Each structure stands twice: as C-alpha cells, then as structure tokens.
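Input sequence (256 aa), recorded before submission:
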Amino acid sequence: MIAPDDRGLTLGDGLFETLLAVDGQLRDVEAHLDRMVAGCATLGLPPPERGVALKAMTDALDAQDGRGGRWAVRLTLTAGWGGRGLDRPAQPGTRLFASAAPAPAPAGPAVLVTSRIRRNEASPTSRLKTLSYLDNVLARAEARAAGADEALMVNTHGEVACAAAANVFWLSRDVLHTPPLDCGVLAGTARARLIRAASGLGVPVVETAAGLQTLAGAQAVLITNSLIGLRAVEGLDGRRFPGHDLVRVLAEAMAA
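Predicted structure, token format:
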C-alpha cells in the first residue's frame, strides 16, 4: 500500500523502470537496474539493493502467474515519507515495489504525430524515468485523439527528442541517426541495444540534433523501447514511409 504522504504520490519524487519478461525471463535486468541506480545518484536517493529489486519483480510475475508469454514488469522506487513541503527528510525512507501486466507485441508499424508539448532538455529529469511523467501522458493522449499510435516530441529548440514512450531513430543514406541525450532524451536500454546491433552489422550510427524537416526527408523512421523492441514508423504528420529492408534486418539483429 502507498501511504497518502508518500513523496512519489504527492510530488512525483522517485523513479521507475519497465522491463519485458518473456516466458518468465526478465530481459536486460542489469541495464535497467544500472539506469535506476544512476537516476538515484542524480536525484540524491539511496539506490535499491539489486537482490531485493530482482525478488520484487519475480514475485510480481509469480503473483500474476506470469511465467508464460510476454509481460511488462514495472519496478517503482519512491522517495518515501517526507511530511509536508518540498524538503526531504535527512534519511529518505525509500519504498520499492513491482507490478506485472500482460504486454502483447505491437501489431504492425506505427503512426506518429508531432505533439505540441515540448521536451525540456534543460531539465535533468528529461533524461531520467522519474515518476513525474505527465508531459508524456498528455502527449500520448494528444496522439490518440488524432488517431495516431504515438506522439513525437521535440525539445524547446525544435529539435527531435523522443516519442512519448520510446526513443526515435531515422535512416538517411543508410546511416542510422538518433538524437543525443542532451536533446532531452532518455538513455533507453532498447536504444543502446539497437546501437550495438547496428554497429555489429556495420551500419554507421550517428547522434544527430535535427529538426522535423530532417525526419520528413528520411528513408525510414523507427522507435524503440523495452516492450516493443524495434517498431517501424509508417506515418508521421501525414508523411508516409515505405518499408525499408534495413529496418527489418536491424529488428532481427536487435532481437537475436
């Protein structure tokens, strides 16, 4: 149970990770826990013990009989009790818990629309999975209302940043591009896997700060996160992207 004075509830003070479990096996556990530990260092929170975190996630799967198929496992760390106001207690009593829910694979490529909500690249939280995710919630709702699957978010400079719940890549002249982290981008675990897979195939990967016009002229656009892996984008703001063989090759290499 979450207490009504928990700082994660009252102030969004905390972090979370979402992992894919397939047939009871958690994917990229160490990468996700590494990211949570790094986020704790940025926020000034004591990091969770890895063994405790792993047990919480496996217990969440067991509670849902989640040993078969695809499951989303969410690990949440809150700053715990803090009383009234912004100041934390000298010794934060963090709370750690996990939950699990079915996560069917996405069906086919995605359609994106550009959100009016800007990503604040100047904020350190733009590069963390904090519990303050309302901008992403509103951007996704905006996309759904427009009949799209996902929102594309740009930062305050008008540079491509990310999707509401995914990293963004594009192909240009058979070079794979993705925004650098200082554009207000989460260091996605699937992002890192795709970069490694592309490098292993000899596909150049370049971190590029670019405006929307660059994506409009791309060979292909794709999004990644832990649950979907790699998903091709077939439409962005009315622009259609034909299928590209290299996207299929990258998806297969990333999943291997």
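Checked by second reader. The longest helix spans residues 29-43.
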